[in-house]
Design brief:
Radius of gyration: 30 Å
Helix content: 25-40%
Structural class: alpha+beta
Largest sheet: 8 strands, mixed
Number of strands: 14
Number of helices: 12
Shape: globular
Length: about 450
């Protein structure tokens, strides 16, 4: 396919998805694509090298790197080791042949580092809109999620379900939509409270415990916390690090192994504590700060702590294959217009009658209790107006029920016609040996 044809092809796929009401995907493994690719038996790459060595080649060829043609400004807030330029992944290899595509297509996402910033973001930042558009395949192979966050934004975090996820996704939760293999949090020198006035380091560390105990990270293998400050504050930083190192996550039943629920917890890997230093300009964001007057460079001291998810009862268990998707119940779209008194529960209409329902009322054919009232013009007019309002509400509900019924019929017709069209395209793709398929 020529490069100029790509936009038109994408438009055609969008149109077909709307007509069939199903998403179009692609086969991602040799098993799924059986008979649709050349096994390349004449190539030494496939006939002589084992799969393990080929995987190393695919990983090396698709590893992310800093693009030398898109450098960052050295005095930008987001400039630091590993982030001196746009992060880029070269996927040219995946377009050479189907056999390589099928073996290597997961590697770019597995190895990529996706950075979110709150705030002072780099130009290559990700955002919730990007996150929400990922395919199920990309979500499954999501590699490293790197969060650069200021204290004012993170200190209110709690360990409630979805609290951490909401930093990255604004869509309704679906099973498996947030499961990074590595979750990396960095506090830069400029993310601490009152760094501008060079005040002593202060960390309200409840949010760190909240992350360790967050249900949103129980499909994550590694949690990293990176703390950066200036070299002359190393002692202050190490005091905070020593305190945080005492944290242990709670144990929760989060996975199922052999039909049995098992517990997980994050365990600090002491041997993986890393320290490094680096230097940068004293002017930050093209500004001169009084605190650093007379200094040509700033020397930074960085400490990284690493926790790994473990199964206390099964120390050799491996996380990704054991993920358990949360059960999420879809909302009942008919709950607002349920039949009156259908299940003995009060509906919105009941509230109109309750205040006027006497203890000794009689039952009419409609099933409602009506008061035995003496004839009084004012009361009669009030009751007449009330019944008018109730009748109007009933008519509104009846119209809404009719509209919903019509919408359901229209949707069913669309689904049936879409299913017929989808079968025709599936037959065509099978005849062409295409890797395309309908996935939902």
């Amino acid at each position: 396919m020529a490069a100029d044809d790509a936009p038109q092809s994408l438009n055609n796929i969008d149109k077909l998805e709307k007509l069939t009401r199903r998403r179009i995907g692609i086969d991602y493994s040799e098993h799924e694509a059986d008979g649709k690719f050349n096994d390349q038996s004449a190539s030494p790459l496939f006939s002589l090298l084992p799969r393990e060595l080929r995987d190393l080649i695919w990983a090396f060829a698709t590893a992310p790197f800093e693009d030398p043609t898109a450098p960052f400004e050295e005095n930008a807030y987001y400039y630091r080791p590993g982030h001196t330029a746009h992060l880029k992944t070269d996927t040219t290899l995946l377009r050479t042949c189907r056999r390589i595509w099928l073996e290597a297509n997961a590697f770019p996402m597995l190895q990529a580092e996706h950075s979110f910033y709150y705030d002072r973001a780099a130009p290559d930042k990700r955002d919730p809109q990007w996150m929400g558009q990922l395919t199920a395949h990309n979500r499954q192979n999501f590699g490293q999620l790197h969060l650069f966050v200021q204290m004012f934004k993170i200190e209110g975090l709690t360990a409630g379900t979805g609290m951490l996820r909401n930093y990255f996704l604004k869509t309704l939760p679906v099973p498996g939509d947030f499961q990074p293999r590595v979750f990396h949090v960095t506090l830069r020198h400029t993310d601490w409270w009152n760094w501008e006035s060079d005040e002593a380091l202060c960390l309200e560390d409840g949010w760190v415990e909240a992350m360790l105990n967050s249900p949103d990270l129980r499909s994550t293998q590694i949690f990293k916390l990176e703390l950066e400050t200036l070299d002359y504050k190393e002692d202050q930083l190490m005091s905070i690090v020593d305190r945080i190192k005492q944290f242990e996550s709670e144990e929760f039943h989060t996975h199922v192994i052999d039909g049995k629920e098992v517990k997980t917890k994050f365990v600090l890997a002491d041997e993986e504590q890393k320290t490094y230093t680096w230097e940068g300009p004293a002017s930050l964001d093209n500004k001169t700060w009084d605190t650093y007057e007379g200094k040509g460079t700033l020397k930074y001291h960085v400490v990284t702590l690493t926790w790994r998810l473990r199964f206390p009862e099964l120390p050799r268990a491996f996380v990704p294959q054991l993920r358990r998707a949360p059960r999420i119940r879809a909302p009942d779209v008919h709950s607002e217009i349920s039949d009156m008194n259908k299940s003995g529960r009060r509906t919105p209409l009941d509230s109109l009658y309750v205040a006027y329902e006497p203890a000794g009322g009689r039952t009419t054919s409609t099933g409602w209790n009506v008061a035995r009232l003496r004839w009084r013009p004012a009361q009669a007019m009030q009751r007449y107006q009330l019944m008018q309002r109730v009748g109007k509400k009933v008519r509104q509900i009846s119209c809404r029920q009719a509209e919903l019924g019509e919408e359901v019929q229209r949707r069913r017709f669309g689904e049936l016609s879409g299913a017929v069209l989808a079968k025709r395209w599936e037959a065509q793709w099978r005849g062409e040996g295409s890797l395309l398929k309908f996935v939902g």
